Amino acid sequence: TLHGWDINAVRVFMGTLFLVDGLYMIFFHENLEHLSSMVRKGDLDLYLVKPINSQFMISCRKVSSFYFVNLALVLTYLSWGLSRLPNPIGWAQVVGFAVMVVCGLLIYYSMRLLFGMLAIILHEAGNIQFVWYNLFRLGTRPDILYPPYLRMIIMTAVPVAFIASAPSKILVEGLNGPLLLHAVVLASCLFTLTAFLWKRVLRQYASASS
Question: What integer is the mean pLDDT of 118-142?
Answer without folding.
Answer: 81
